[in-house]
Design brief:
The chain is α+β, with helices and mostly antiparallel strands. It has one domain (about 1-110): Zincin-like, CATH 3.30.2010.20. It has helices at about 1-5, 10-15, 30-35, 70-80, 80-100, 105-110, and strands at about 20-25, 45-50, 65-70.
């Protein structure tokens, strides 16, 4: 995962000073249900948790860092080689950074993420 993060474009990496990126094995069923997903057929590659930059006021502060979680097992099931996993991790992190910037899923998909 570190290689994928090191390869992020500078315009994204520059805005991650207060964003924690973590790796977990799998999203749990309760999380999937909370997000409106069916644990029997849906999964998740990554998740952004925090307050998007475009929703922060001038007095924003005293909050825990935002968090991007990458879920390894769903990626490994889809991407059969280490190179494909690295590319998908990078794409997923950029997608989640897009949420940090305030973009929704539809806008991110239009951009290829």
């Amino acid at each position: 995962m570190a290689e994928a993060l090191d390869d992020l474009p500078e315009e994204f990496a520059a805005h991650l000073e207060n964003v924690e990126v973590v790796l977990e094995d799998d999203p749990d069923d309760a999380l999937l249900r909370q997000l409106g997903l069916d644990p029997r057929r849906d999964t998740l590659f990554g998740l952004y948790q925090g307050v998007p930059l475009d929703e922060r006021g001038f007095a924003f502060g005293n909050f825990l860092p935002d968090k991007i979680t990458i879920f390894y097992h769903p990626l490994a099931r889809i991407c059969r080689t280490p190179d494909r996993i690295r590319r998908q991790v990078r794409k997923t992190v950029i997608h989640e950074i897009g949420h940090h910037f305030g973009l929704d899923d539809a806008a991110l998909r239009r951009e290829g993420y």
